[in-house]
Amino acid sequence: MNRTSTFALALTALPLALGPLASAHAETQSYSVIFGGKVVGHLDAATNGNRTTIDFDVKNNGRGPTMAEVIELGADGLPARWDVTGKTTFGSKVEEHFLKTGGKATWTDSTGKGSAPAKGPTLYVAQSGSPFADQIYARALLARPGMTMPALPGGQLTLEKGESFSVTGAGGPLTVTRYVLTGIQTTPETMLIDDKGGLFASVDPSSVLVRKGYEGEEVRLRKMAADWSTQRFVGIEKQVAHKYDSPVRIRNVRLFDPKTSTLTGPVSVLVNGREIAAIEPLDSPATPGEVTIDGAGGTLVAGMYEMHGHLGQDDALLNLVAGITTVRDMGNDNAVLAKLIDRIDSGELGGPHVIRSGFIEGKSPFSANNGILVNSEQETIDAVRWYGARGYWQIKSYNSMNPAWIPALVKEAHRLGMRVAGHVPAFSTEDTDIEAGFDEATHINQFVLQWVIKPTEDTRTLFRLTALKRLQGLDLTSERVQHSIKLMASHHAAIDPTLGIHENLLLNRDGKVPSGAVDYIDHLPIGTRRDMMKAWIDTSAPGDAQAYEAAYGKLLDVTRMLHDAGVMIVFGTDTGGSFTYHRELELYQKAGFTIPEILKRATFDSAVYAGQGDRMGSIEKGKLADFFLVPGDPTKDLKAIKTIAMVVKDGTFYYPSEVYPKFGIKPFTAAPKVTLPGS
Known about the structure:
The protein has about 675 residues and is α+β, with helices and mostly antiparallel strands. It has 17 helices and 33 strands.
């Protein structure tokens, strides 16, 4: 994920390297961070000779990074010293230091200490740097042959030049040029550089960091960023999407049957167009003109449902090749999402089917700048009607909603045939939402907080996460806890726990590979790997680390109790899906699910829950050809789903071994053998 799309999702500072500032004079560069049309942060960079100090602060949805940086350049114009201090989006402390002296480079970051000989020009890849790094990258790489150079602690940075165009603002007209940086993250970084080599903007379809005085260009720049991103992914789709003109026979595969929660014997599956044409005995002869795919005794599983996504172009294809053929989007820029769905449905881009949730948020200093923001009960009802008229499946309410408006929201949504889910409004409880008619609770922390916080405590900030440490002393057999669980069951309300994000929040520690990432972290680009080895929250106070660990155990226990009570639990991540979705499924084993039960819930049960069981969720004649192939038996070892060899969605075939290198990811397994007609 690139830096600016992080503004769109969690507003964290992702790692980018800091390269040389060739300026020898004093100057100050100031930028605004804009998300959802609202300025949510700033970046100020003051340069005096070879020294630059940076103040970076973003706050959206009650959270965001605060960083202070100091960069000193050496005689070669590259950073000789770089210090970063501050806090990440969720509050963990940052103490990062880089020093190059005497032919040796040393650094300390959340992964620990590192060193390397400083032979030849190299750029240090900052783990917690601000977006101002884009300017430093550009100035360094523009001076190198081929605009490429090695990075520390590893990898290779490459800059590619795009088009030039004019922008206008308080500082007068400027000519800027688009450059794309690759080599560190799974998604390239797009920056705009002026004719003096200065950073004008870092851009993303959902957000921008732009030079102060030019905020009026924000809408235009986001549209251009969306177009550039689309061009990239359209090009990838043309290379990796296989749309066969003939029927496709997938031989020698077993099917996961959700009706029995077991595997069938070896069969052949026939795909024609978008649909499954037949399931035949293994020894059935092929018909003339077929494409044949050798399943080699592997397992076909129906496409899985990621039930808590915020989908964008950057992660659409990655979700698909992880076996996720449907994503329930839980809040987005409505226009951006509509365009993305159009492009996926037309075959222009690769991505999953999308179930839309209409995001409604109350206006407050802590508002999430997404969907529709409302300031009265009538505006709330009007927003529900807007979503209903456009076919949205459900409404998602958020933290700053006035609790007094919830009954009207629920009544109108239900009248229009939509479900209601979401966060608990500040100063209310999950019990109150369920009693008002919520169909689903969102996030396990939102459910449990009602047992440990006071009615006057504000959950629109990081408090809704840090307060979880109070759980360690909670008696889960108490009447208060049992009342909430019984209420969920009696109201037939579902819950979307997002266990994985809580695992990362409560258990991740600096320098440690997260438990959920051990199976795939070595396949990822270096910047992404280092990102994952950061703590999310500050655990430095005595007893906090133990309290958070105990809290995570309580969340698993509560999830198990809900499951035992018959509450419908759906599987979503809120962390982008893909590999983190695979981990999400594994965590439900810890909460008492069997592996076949998990596979059934991720596929058929979710399809039925979403009203799509007649066309999706199982591998049957006449249903959409949405499924994936793994070499092993996922009913015995759930980790088998990490080694997906093939994904089919709407009859289009994708081989992850072809897709992953486009994102700098090392493939997990080879593609199956494909034989074309006449071969």
